[in-house]
Amino acid sequence: MEATVVHFRQGRHHVHEKQMVLKIADSADAAAKSVGKTVTWTSPSGKEIKGKITGLHGRTGSVKAQFAEKGLPGQALGKKVKVN
After folding, report:
1. 60 Cα distance to chain centroid
2. In this structure, what is the dihedral angle of CA atoms 69, 22, 34, 19, given to the nearest 10 degrees?
3. Does 41 have pLDDT greater than 90?
4. Rounded to an integer, what distance in angstroms lies between the CA atom of residue 9 and that of residue 5?
């Protein structure tokens, strides 16, 4: 399964670099089935950054993902990630 990196998760004053919003499905019910799965983004140089889907983000099929070691770079926005 694949998902698209939509945006960094942010508030009014802070951008959380380790938390990303992913578009994974067209409905919240379909996206809820992927909570707890592992997400992997591969850089152009071949390095993999892994994270975990932590919950829903809204009711449109988006989810929140937490990346452990460090967040994704800005070049990952709009790109595909693998969901295992």
Report:
1. 14
2. 30
3. yes
4. 11
